[in-house]
Amino acid sequence: MEFSVEEVAALVNGTVIGDTSQSLTGISSLAEAVPGDISFLANDKYAPYLAETKASAVLVAKEQDVKNLVQIVVKDPDFAFAKVVEAFVPTVGQPEPGIHPTAVIGDGVQLGNNVAIGPYTVITNNAKIGDNSVIYPHVYIGDECEIGSDCILFPHVTIREKSIIGNRVILHSGVVCGSDGFGYASVEGVHNKIPQVGVVIIEDDVEIGANTTIDRARFGRTFIGEGTKIDNMVQVAHNAEIGAHCIIVAQSGVAGSTHIGHHTTIAGQSGISGHLQIGDFVVVAARSGVTKNIPSNTAVMGFPAQDLKSQKAKEVAMRRLPGTVSTVKELEKRLAALEAELEALKGGEA
Amino acid sequence: MEFSVEEVAALVNGTVIGDTSQSLTGISSLAEAVPGDISFLANDKYAPYLAETKASAVLVAKEQDVKNLVQIVVKDPDFAFAKVVEAFVPTVGQPEPGIHPTAVIGDGVQLGNNVAIGPYTVITNNAKIGDNSVIYPHVYIGDECEIGSDCILFPHVTIREKSIIGNRVILHSGVVCGSDGFGYASVEGVHNKIPQVGVVIIEDDVEIGANTTIDRARFGRTFIGEGTKIDNMVQVAHNAEIGAHCIIVAQSGVAGSTHIGHHTTIAGQSGISGHLQIGDFVVVAARSGVTKNIPSNTAVMGFPAQDLKSQKAKEVAMRRLPGTVSTVKELEKRLAALEAELEALKGGEA
Amino acid sequence: MEFSVEEVAALVNGTVIGDTSQSLTGISSLAEAVPGDISFLANDKYAPYLAETKASAVLVAKEQDVKNLVQIVVKDPDFAFAKVVEAFVPTVGQPEPGIHPTAVIGDGVQLGNNVAIGPYTVITNNAKIGDNSVIYPHVYIGDECEIGSDCILFPHVTIREKSIIGNRVILHSGVVCGSDGFGYASVEGVHNKIPQVGVVIIEDDVEIGANTTIDRARFGRTFIGEGTKIDNMVQVAHNAEIGAHCIIVAQSGVAGSTHIGHHTTIAGQSGISGHLQIGDFVVVAARSGVTKNIPSNTAVMGFPAQDLKSQKAKEVAMRRLPGTVSTVKELEKRLAALEAELEALKGGEA
User: Fold this and answer.
1) Is there a single domain that holds both residue B167 and residue B245?
2) What is the pLDDT averaged over residues B194-220?
3) Inter-residue contact A285 to A308 (CB < 8 Å)
4) Reported confidence tier of residue B348, pLDDT bands at 50, 70, 90
5) For B243-257, what is the mean pLDDT?
6) Residue of B122, B157, B270 best to disrupt the C interface, most CBs of C under 10 A
7) For a Cys staple, B93 with which of A143, A220, A274, B37, CB 3.0–4.6 Å?
8) pTM summary value
């Protein structure tokens, strides 16, 4: 693909500083760009690269003091760059609309217009799939599932029976949606399986990363709200409810029946215990273990997770701990010496 | 399905308090119940919901002081409710008994009576599968594997060659059983693969969660004992042995050659180092890292994991740590002042 | 298979102590060996087993003082034993060379000589696969992927479009290579997907464990260097670069854009934050969380990860912490008593 700087600026609603006729043929980061590439500056950390980049144009949030650099000033360079990438890079490898002859489609399945179903995908009885959804090879969609329109299900996704999935949902390879929750009634040392007869509901515009697992509810539902984005290898246990527009980073886990509000961020490798209430706009730092309810608009870190200020004070104190322990030992000696001296003084007075 | 209170009471061997003829048509939690539902109280935390529930009957462990509530008193409401759920909710979406015409079955494969094999499942040479087992689509069962009777293998399960699996075993989607253990002989900076030629043995009544991995042994066996239940995304490394009736919660890992006794519980996101001996009836709290042998009947937490009492004392001390550090600094000043004063006093005496 | 001690010694370039004509028919660990087995001693921890082993020969690094034990002295018993295992245990269950009639092969796919492709594998347009590579059933290889020669891809591997994979690479079941990186531009509380149009490059002799995920780059590449071995359920995020001959143990994660040198070891359940530089020959202990750049030849542990000495001092101090807190409280009392006494003394003098 080839675009002029002017065409790109129009696409992203930006203002050009420099030559608008320059031809752009590729996309890249500032450090790796070659002539013809368009790049972007979203993080000031990378500003030093501007002076040396070979990019032919750079998306920026405000004019940068760099000579001879063609700049396109936009509100949000990250977001603008995403649009540019879509224009430059055509999607490859998607199954074509239509049903591959090897797909196995059960009784009563309803398929929307323009659906693409790849080889060896299995869709069992009474499932529904909306318009324009793309189902890659080797996907399994169980009985009575509902998948909305404009979804993308990558190879090796498993959707167990009765799951309900909204529109524009993206499920990456190896996602398991609707596996049984982990529940047993233990009687005299034997763990008896508690049937998990609830469902999974995933709202519109959710994206779920590779090999993530979302268990079906014991009864009722496990729920992922609109616009929430979940990374790879995240565990969402039965009856968990996650609100809209959350971010959950890789290898985190949400235990059973925990409810999380909207716009909450859980950084990587964190865990949230079961049966908790986590508010809106909460931030859980990486590798935290949350063991208590967290009110809205709070940032927590550590294990057990505390508010940032307490946790940071604890970490500073811990770093100094070996020194503190030595100081205490020394104080103990000096105090004993003082006590002895004072005893001696008093004796002298007696 | 529809049952009377009396019929349900008979099913769970319970005693009815209230109207036994009431008709029951669904199941639910106390909070979400609608008229016609049966619910249960297993955790006293939820007792306040009894006064407001719309459930038409509730399974309880002892009579509750709530007016006009139809109660069925049973020994274990959790276990009883599981039985009720099975009666109310028919299983949907299982492949029918028989071999789907698209399944690929190798030479010398032995299939029991009433086995169900879904589309696109591949069973290679000399594997055996017992009576009534249900194999969903897209399952891979390798050479010389033995699967018992009444098992359920969900879509996208992989069983590598020579694995031996007992009766009534449930393997959820994405389980990988028998992948190579992680072993290398490093010579001059190059890691040479050590062949992993052992097997995986899984005993009767084991359930393994979605995307969990059980590596085959270097030689000998990796072993999961009878009745043990493993949650999603758990890693069991080569030559690990896990005893009977254990519970291992999501995202935990057991490193190579560690042996775990029976009735041991490992809570979520924990790790057990390699070559350890963990006893029977051990409890490892969530997010613990176990680095030493643990005797039977012990509860441990933290990293490195300690007994509960030591770890809790440590946590309390840590929470107070910033205060303690300030106190030490202040003590240091006061001590220096005292020392100076005493020196002055002694000078005055001289 | 059956070999004489002499034949095995020749295979591993070892020196026999004892009867060279003894016949060997199996392989085992020292503890589990039966007569006819060959075993090995790689870790001195297991030396006490030598006196009791029933093995008919043992690979050792130096002569052991055990009577009547046939010993084969080699430089590296672990490595030597791996060679012996290969000789004794034939590979079973691999698909035969040739393309299974059910495999779906796209347009323009180039297959080398002697390639084996199992049932229901899907290879889409313009992918290339080198000589002798073995592709198990249920593998997905996307458009324009390049797979080298002598590779093994186990069942249920997903390779998304444009991934480039070297020679002698082993990918275990459930590996997802080339899934979209986790990147969004958040505008007014809505997370807009940033297209991930880069690739994954995996060099020669890499092995990747079951259910591990390697995300494709935002643009540019995610990179795994020659000879690096990655265990099960490891997350490698977009634009991460991992050098040659590294070891990454199960359930660890490497966040986006972090660069790791060569010969670095990351033990199990660790996490490395994004945008870091980790050097060569670094060792990250198990369950560490690395939040800063790490220079080469450094060992770190803990969270936040510190050098071993600091971290161990911290752990010792933490273990003593409850005692230290008590000591501080006691010192406070004794100091107050001293201050009072001194005041009294001074008063007495006045």
Assistant:
1) yes
2) 96
3) yes
4) low
5) 98
6) B122
7) A143
8) 0.92
